[in-house]
Design goal:
8-stranded mixed beta sheet, alpha/beta, 7 helices, globular
Length: about 240
């Protein structure tokens, strides 16, 4: 059992989604069963990106329940697209969302925390399909209200599910081949780390454009979930984040 997480770039185009589906198929061949967590498609300016949805009305930032509900729709759209295309790709799958995911949240709208996860429904469906798809970035409180997990919250969804499902590790697919010593958009010379300890990795997540959400990495440290950060475009080795 592994968890694979695909971000907005990995979902952005048909070509990138084909790359994603190839990685899913390889993961199933290697591990038998996979839980896939997806982010909303694209970035600000793309029609179904989270920021684009939140910009539909100036009233949304003041209406916290409505704001979180519309923000969660980007991941639901992405999950639906991935599910339909995976079926055409020959991979049996099931989308689980809302209460079906068992993700119980608490705290404040827009920056909620995961209180507990009951994985029973996910495990039930993994008995009948090869892949369960979970929209990231969201859960529900005790009253059934949708709450989102802060910017980059799909990363936290993936790590928390890995802990609840006793997965061996989480794979994050990126537009870079792994964790790099410098930003390739800024510097010409950089190297890729093959392995980093979690305490070496955490300081690299303080930048605005961190490769994964820092809260997710801290959760991985707390629960000893190994992380594997790799490129979406090919099969070259990525960077293992080891946790003792």
């Amino acid at each position: 059992m592994i968890v694979q997480k695909f971000g907005g770039i990995a979902m952005q185009s048909e070509e990138m989604r084909v790359n994603s589906m190839n990685h899913i198929k390889q993961g199933i061949e290697q591990c038998g069963k996979i839980v896939v967590v997806v982010s909303a498609i694209g970035r600000l300016g793309d029609p179904y990106a989270t920021d684009s949805l939140l910009n539909l009305s100036d009233a949304l930032p003041l209406a916290h329940e409505a704001s979180d509900l519309i923000a969660s729709c980007g991941e639901l759209i992405a999950a639906s697209v991935m599910s339909a295309e995976l079926k055409q790709f020959g991979v049996s799958n099931k989308i689980l969302h809302g209460k079906q995911t068992g993700i119980l949240t608490t705290g404040k709208y827009g920056d909620a925390s995961i209180r507990t996860i009951n994985p029973a429904t996910i495990l039930d469906f993994l008995n009948t399909v090869d892949c369960v798809i979970i929209p990231g970035f969201q859960g529900m409180d005790y009253e059934g209200n949708v709450m989102t997990l802060g910017r980059g919250g799909s990363d936290l969804t993936a790590v928390a599910l890995a802990d609840a499902l006793n997965a061996t590790h989480v794979e994050f697919f990126k537009d870079v081949p792994g964790v790099l010593s410098g930003d390739p958009k800024v510097v010409k010379s950089y190297t890729k780390f093959d392995e980093l300890g979690i305490d070496e990795f955490l300081p690299l997540l303080n930048s605005k454009n961190a490769i994964i959400q820092k809260r997710a990495a801290l959760f991985a440290k707390k629960t000893a979930i190994p992380l594997y950060i790799r490129g979406i475009a090919g099969n070259e080795t990525g960077t293992w984040i080891t946790v003792e």
